[in-house]
Design brief:
alpha+beta, 8 helices, 8 strands, globular, Transcrip_reg_TACO1-like, DNA binding, cytoplasm, transcription
């Protein structure tokens, strides 16, 4: 799996985005509502809901909060959240993708315009940036007792597309549609999965001078703080 630094970029940014517990809860609740609206109340037949419920469990979202929002999501008058992907150009030609769960697209776009006005960059046309990224399922595994060869074999048998050893543990890449199926097979083998997400992975990374890198980071951090924003991806090299 070429381009190890892109994983470091994404993980670093996710950690920054997840810094506030309140935002984690809010995001997961919106994911649950969206999953129920799209696929129904039964987690057995709704893989999207299964994944959202697992996220809630991993983040220690109170059970009563989860149950209340699952019930609310089935109500016809419950606010519906749409998944929207926004594409931006940062400084130095860097591509930035913004995933949002929003019930008001006009508000979200307005917030992004304010971000680019304050921190630079421009909102791009649909498709102008996204073609440089691949949508993939990502499973992060902490270091454990199994050898790399054992994990590689298990991941391959479960249907993984790629596998990489990192400083923190291992990364398994899947087709987005197969993410939960692969995770379930690993769970059955008692393999600990620290995180299961669908992410946008850059095909190529851009090296930036320190000043450009810092300008882009300031833009990304502003965007990450927006209430509607779920995740931010970019194609800068972490090495700058």
């Amino acid at each position: 799996m070429a381009g190890h630094s892109k994983w470091a970029n994404i993980k670093h940014k996710k950690e920054r985005a997840d810094a506030k517990k309140g935002k984690i809860f809010s995001r997961i609740v919106k994911e649950i509502i969206s999953a129920v609206k799209m696929g129904g109340l039964d987690p057995k037949s709704n893989a999207r809901l299964r994944l959202a419920l697992q996220k809630a469990k991993d983040a220690n979202v109170p059970k009563d909060v989860v149950e209340k929002n699952v019930k609310k999501a089935s109500s016809c008058d419950q606010t519906d959240y749409a998944e929207v992907l926004y594409e931006l150009y940062g400084h130095g030609g860097v591509g930035v993708l913004v995933e949002a769960l929003t019930d008001n697209r006009n508000r979200t776009v307005s917030d992004l315009r304010i971000a680019t006005h304050k921190r630079g960059g421009t909102i791009a046309d649909t498709g102008a940036v996204a073609f440089n990224f691949d949508r993939r399922g990502i499973l992060r595994l902490p270091k454990g007792d199994m050898s790399e060869d054992e994990l590689f074999l298990l991941a391959t048998e479960a249907g993984a597309e790629d596998f990489e050893v990192t400083e923190e543990g291992c990364l398994i890449v899947t087709d987005p549609q197969e993410l939960y199926a692969v995770k379930e097979q690993l769970d059955e083998k008692d393999v600990v999965v620290e995180e299961a997400t669908i992410e946008m992975i850059p095909k190529m990374l851009i090296d930036c001078e320190e000043k450009t890198l810092q300008s882009n980071m300031a833009l990304i951090e502003w965007i990450e703080a927006l209430d509607d924003v779920d995740a931010v991806y970019h194609n800068m090299s972490s090495e700058g």
